[in-house]
Write a structure and sequence with these properties.
This protein has about 950 residues and is of the alpha+beta class. Helix content is about 35%, strand content about 15%. The strands form six sheets. Strands 20, 24, 25, 26, 27, 28, 29, 30 and 31 form a nine-stranded antiparallel β-sheet that branches. Strands 5, 6, 7, 10, 13, 14, 15 and 16 form an eight-stranded mixed β-sheet that branches. It has a five-stranded antiparallel β-sheet with strand order 3-4-8-9-17.
Length: about 950
């Protein structure tokens, strides 16, 4: 037996690992702290005034606030339009408003104003122009100080002749103004730590003598800022809930607070009556190393991000600062001689966990006693913190869970047989094992690293094994799809055909991928898959086009394996997951496990015990715990790397860049907070120019009309889709671009010649008859044809606005994409996109839709009414259900009885959105000369690509 050597402690342990766990939990040695700021421009950090208030004694003595007749929080209520869904809310943690001292307010009590500042108070800026200039130069243009100075010199020189005053004298004055902004101000602090264990008597490794600096911001103050944001007030959940469909009482999961974990945490917290009426605030963390510059050396950074579970997934995913940088963790570097030693590995792991524990320690009091904070709706509420899910890739997950690489971080399945059923890991079970077994048995039999304590051990209600979040990007997209299946196909082809023939097949697969028709937002692969640096976006793009490219070159079992994986990926990526969806996800997992056996039977692989692939089986349970996984994916933190790490690094002078990066991030936060504040007060309506013109015209007694156009309709030259921040008021809407093409046809006759459609005027007359509802009501054989002017306006694109919350979209779930139809796209080849057309709104999916190819967009006037139209070529569906192997619908170009292409004119209101078609290659080799713009003209049958985006997948999956 081994005794604890700490004074006053009388515990004994069977082994060293149990003693280590005990010391780290009950006798922790915190690193020495040196609080400072990174560069001289920042004011010194200070403890500051504590605004949070621990509730006074006697809080909650009256019992459950639901017993109070003034309480307005029902246990269940309908949500959304039409009473289609209802929610059951947690009965105890109800998010009830209170005053600044924590005293609950009666129902309907108005909130205090968020600010007493006037609508014309631009402090610390002197005017809107001053703020807009600072925001433009620092946030959007990211201009260097030297370039800012040059620009201001030129600007100020132009003012000398008129006697005008400069806005800023130089960049220093602009930076000083930004730094004086009180909003969004959470100072950076630093603590330092070093190795304190035993050292060898000679040849001491350098890492044992080094000091490691960790920069961080108070997570409590960051959370305070997030909760107080008015723009989050309509997208925040104050209470855990369970959501159901009214008609069937079937449950569905979407945002984080709809999951079982938040509800169970609320149950545990509310055992203390003093917490009743509070708001539970789960802390979501994420970390991942990132490299900012390979060419100039190993410049790695280790950012730590924070979010809260109350804000909804669409906010966290929409780049609305719902994820905040709170720390840069230390990265101990070591030469190869010492990097692989057990002592260094143990120190590196413990440094990570100790750093997290220290950074988060100011949240600890608020995890057991309610703290008063103000929210964006103006009300104060009592909050209870809790450590929530941790967003990380697999390498980070094994570090977090103190698990041996190759084991599952969620369950106890043996490393060599991961797909066997096994119990979930738990904190209590791990601690019992550590007290019972030595380090070697822990590692070999359970995959546990017993001499490291997870940072969660010192926090209440925190189980690191439970808190590991699902990771669609690394586990499924980059792991199972790219690193496993795509590589296995290459190995399979070489095993079946030999290297020479396999390479010829792989070249043809690459040509198929390269020949796919363009589509808005689709990443191109002009040389196939052969490039060294794969990003997550590259893997996502390959998923969209890979399945049809391999068909005909591999066995149908491999095609079905890919189909099962793709369908699983798109299902778990949905913004709302129902009980029915969970069943479909389970079916996709089972089909994937069944069909992937072809790789083992062919000798391509020997085992499927792969942690990333194994993680698929845990997704149904994780969805029930945490809601839809798209709100917890590492793609969120990786995209944050760009704004918080990579872009700030590029703006530094490379001399001790971290300090400069901290200042840049702090200024970005202040500018963003100012923009939110000015927007909330209605001070940023219209452009700066129109506002200034309005001001001068008002002074002169003249009215000024705002001629600004709707955003997005004149961006048709960009081949990207975009998130649109507007209310969810429509399912879909298509509108023609506003820029007429003066070099294209201006009359119906010219358009007929341009498209080589001599009968186009007749088709247009038939269209008008249909629009005027005259065709069917005509009694004579020769009806009186409607008249129209020969003049038309041709445009090259139309903008489709539709509800696509599972894709990158605005806070209301709306997304805009462009449908192109032009004879030269970006001064290159012609482009004529395809689209979905609504033909029967009463039917679901493809049963109520048809496919057309847009030959031209134009508008004309008939009887004083303008008609926006499209000349289209129709496609016919092949069969009445999708293909059994790929799961995709097949279409082919339609022909008339005279074997002419079926051409028509349709109103743009009948268009739904763009469609992407991929040729049905079968075994036909693709010519090296085939270009993407030839794709729709060179083949006779096509798949409707349901994997082009998540909206298309949902739309086409509703068909069967």
């Amino acid at each position: 037996m081994i005794p604890c050597t700490k004074t006053g402690c009388h515990r004994w342990f069977r082994n060293k690992s149990g003693l280590t766990q005990h010391v780290n939990v009950y006798h922790p040695v915190l690193p020495s702290v040196n609080i400072s700021v990174p560069v001289e421009q920042c004011q010194e950090s200070s403890a500051g005034e504590e605004h949070s208030q621990v509730l006074p004694d006697g809080y909650g003595d009256s019992g459950n606030p639901l017993d109070d007749p003034s309480n307005s929080n029902p246990l269940a209520e309908y949500v959304g339009p039409g009473d289609r869904y209802y929610r059951n809310y947690h009965p105890n943690l109800t998010g009830r408003p209170c005053d600044s001292l924590g005293n609950f307010l009666p129902a309907g009590h108005p909130a205090e104003p968020l600010t007493d500042m006037q609508p014309d108070d631009w402090s610390p800026y002197s005017s809107r122009l001053e703020f807009e200039l600072a925001d433009f130069l620092f946030t959007r243009s990211q201009m260097s100080a030297a370039n800012i100075n040059e620009l201001l010199n030129l600007w100020n020189a132009s003012l000398l002749s008129t006697g005008g005053q400069p806005i800023f004298r130089d960049s220093g004055e602009m930076y000083k103004t930004i730094d004086s902004t009180p909003l969004g101000d959470v100072q950076w602090e630093k603590f330092s730590t070093s190795y304190t264990g035993e050292r060898p008597t000679e040849n001491v490794p350098p890492w044992m003598n080094d000091t490691y600096d960790i920069w961080f911001r108070s997570p409590k103050e960051v959370i305070r800022n997030m909760l107080s944001r008015p723009d989050f007030s309509d997208a925040i959940d104050y209470r855990p809930f369970r959501e159901y469909e009214s008609a069937t009482d079937s449950r569905q999961w979407e945002d984080f607070m709809s999951g079982d974990w938040a509800w169970k945490q609320a149950d545990t917290i509310s055992r203390d009556p003093a917490t009743h009426g509070s708001t539970f605030v789960p802390i979501i963390l994420g970390s991942d190393k990132t490299t900012v510059s390979v060419a100039t050396g190993q410049n790695d950074y280790y950012p730590l991000y924070l979010s809260i579970g109350n804000i909804r997934n669409k906010v966290r995913r929409a780049h609305r600062n719902g994820v905040i940088l709170i720390a840069f963790l230390a990265i101990p570097h070591m030469d190869k001689e010492h990097a692989s030693t057990d002592a260094f590995r143990r120190f590196r792991r413990q440094l990570f966990h100790s750093s997290l524990a220290y950074i988060l320690h100011d949240l600890m009091p608020g995890m057991t006693e309610p703290i008063v904070m103000r929210f964006g709706d103006g009300h104060y509420r009592c909050v209870i913190f809790g450590l929530g899910p941790y967003i990380a890739d697999y390498e980070e997950q094994v570090l977090l869970a103190c698990i041996v690489r190759g084991w599952c971080v969620k369950c106890l399945a043996m490393r060599q047989a991961l797909d066997t059923d096994a119990l979930y890991r738990s904190r209590e079970h791990a601690e019992a094992l550590i007290e019972e077994f030595d380090l070697k048995n822990l590692r070999d039999e359970y995959g546990i690293i017993g001499d490291i304590i997870p940072f969660t051990s010192g926090f209440p209600r925190a189980d690191i094994y439970e808190l590991i979040a699902p990771d669609i990007l690394h586990q499924i997209i980059k792991g199972t799809f790219k690193d496993h299946l795509v590589e296995w196909v290459e190995s399979y082809l070489k095993a079946m055909h030999g290297t020479a023939k396999a390479n010829a097949i792989l070249d043809d697969i690459d040509r198929r991928i390269a020949a796919v028709a363009p589509f808005t937002g689709l990443r191109r692969f002009p040389e196939g898959r052969h490039f060294k640096q794969w990003t997550g976006n590259d893997s996502k793009a390959l998923m969209k086009v890979y399945l049809p490219a391999i068909e005909g070159h591999v066995l149908v079992e491999i095609v079905r394996t890919f189909r099962a994986l793709l369908e699983f990926t798109y299902l778990v990526r949905r913004n709302v997951i129902t009980e029915e969806t969970l069943v479909t996800i389970e079916d996709a997992i089972n089909r994937f496990h069944k069909h992937r056996e072809i790789f083992r039977e062919s000798g391509t692989v020997q085992t499927f015990s792969l942690p990333r692939q194994h993680a698929m089986k845990h997704y149904p349970d994780l969805i029930c715990l945490f809601g839809a996984p798209n709100g917890l994916c590492t793609s969120i933190t990786e995209s944050k790397h760009i704004d918080a790490v990579k872009d700030p690094y590029r703006r530094t002078n490379r001399n001790k860049p971290l300090g400069q990066m901290l200042i840049i991030n702090q200024r970005l936060d202040k500018l963003a907070a100012s923009r939110r504040d000015f927007s909330r007060r209605g001070m940023l309506e219209g452009s700066c120019l129109t506002a200034t013109m309005q001001l001068f015209s008002t002074r002169d007694g003249r009215a000024h009309s705002n001629t600004s156009e709707a955003p997005g309709l004149n961006r048709c030259n960009e081949d990207t889709d975009e998130a649109v921040d507007c209310p969810t008021s429509i399912e879909a809407h298509v509108e023609l671009a506003r820029t007429p093409q003066t070099k294209r046809a201006r009359t119906v006759t010219e358009l007929a010649a341009e498209l080589n459609l001599q009968h186009l005027p007749t088709i247009l007359e038939e269209f008008l008859l249909q629009q005027l509802d005259a065709y069917d009501n005509c009694d004579s054989d020769l009806p009186e044809w409607p008249t129209y002017g020969n003049k038309i306006t041709v445009v090259n694109a139309a903008a489709a606005l539709f509800y696509a919350p599972s894709d990158i979209s605005g806070i209301g779930g709306m997304r805009r994409e462009y449908i192109r139809s032009c004879h030269s796209w970006q001064n290159g080849a012609p482009r004529y996109d395809c689209a979905f057309v609504n033909t029967d709104s009463g039917l679901k999916g493809m049963y109520g839709l048809d496919i057309v190819r847009i030959l031209a967009f134009f508008s004309f006037v008939s009887q004083s009414k303008r008609y926006p139209c499209a000349v289209v070529r129709w496609f016919d569906r092949v069969g009445d259900k999708p293909d059994t192997d790929t799961g995709m619908w097949i279409v082919r170009p339609a022909f008339t009885a005279q074997r002419r292409p079926s051409i028509g004119i349709i109103h743009v209101d009948t268009l739904y959105r763009a469609a992407h078609l991929i040729p049905l290659y079968a075994t036909r080799p693709v010519s090296r000369n085939l270009k993407p713009h030839h794709s729709y003209d060179s083949f006779t049958a096509f798949y409707i690509n349901k994997f082009i985006d998540h909206h298309a997948f949902s739309l086409l999956s509703d068909s069967y």
